[in-house]
Amino acid sequence: xxxxxxxxxxxxxxxxxxxxxxxxxxxxxxxxxxxxxxxxxxxxxxxxxxxxxxxxxxxxxxxxxxxxxxxxxxxxxxxxxxxxxxxxxxxxxxxxxxxxxxxxxxxxxxxxxxxxxxxxxxxxxxxxxxxxxxxxxxxxxxxxxxxxxxxxxxxxxxxxxxxxxxxxxxxxxxxxxxxxxxxxxxxxxxxxxxxxxxxxxxxxxxxxxxxxxxxxxxxxxxxxxxxxxxxxxxxxxxxxxxxxxxxxxxxxxxxxxxxxxxxxxxxxxxxxxxxxxxxxxxxxxxxxxxxxxxxxxxxxxxxxxxxxxxxxxxxxxxxxxxxxxxxxxxxxxxxxxxxxxxxxxxxxxxxxxxxxxxxxxxxxxxx
Length: 367
Prior knowledge:
The protein is α+β, with helices and mostly antiparallel strands and 367 residues long. It has twelve helices and ten strands.
């Protein structure tokens, strides 16, 4: 049964305050702390009654009889979906994000490597970056290098700016002018087309446009199939795995070992990430995934796209008691920057001052 419609604004305010405090300090939150430190204008007795009802509705849990409450998985889900504040990315964080764009790194591998390190540093969680393999993908641009009358090099730029090359030998003489014709025909009719869509009509159109170079279209298409068929497989890289040990949720060595095995194997997490084909930040909390060792963890990620095709993803793994607002805000900002760069738009200029966030002083923990 869905209880969301039954939540009053007062219950939402109390639930949000409890989760905000619990994320900061990791301790159960009591009614007295909410009235004194969070300045909720209600009596302790009223807040206790509301907390008891939120517990009955499944949004809170009480770990000990006399203790305060902590959020449940359902509580975190409601918080992420509709209660948490939008994170104001700070000036320093914008500068760090823009530094990736100014680094003039063209290869997606290097961009992801830098992004992964930065996300782990800024969030203090384990970061992960996924690069989707280019098998079955697209050749974005085709160039040639003339060697001699009987051979030339075919240079293929794939998704993610990966470059592959093949030497093609011919039975008929080839000159530089013929290769210029060939490149023009290939880039007009073949480049940018998924390999599975390169059919006979497209090949015939390319041959017609190639003129005297038409006999080279067939061996070039064969090379394209060979390259895309042997392209790299999808992969995930992690940064800051040891940071999980900072959180009580992973202090149990057996639990950490199980999580480490999941990270080392990669396949289960990759399956979860590849199942999300949307263009937004995905937040998968605890038991929402079938990966059992992640029951006490949260996976947050967003896909990277180039010309409408998913080429990778950036995310973090941490405890369910995660600073969701900050993590979602930073991943959203970073992937926006990288997507803009890969789509060929101008890199960002000055940091938008309207998005500056103030560094908040850390409050005293709840009593």
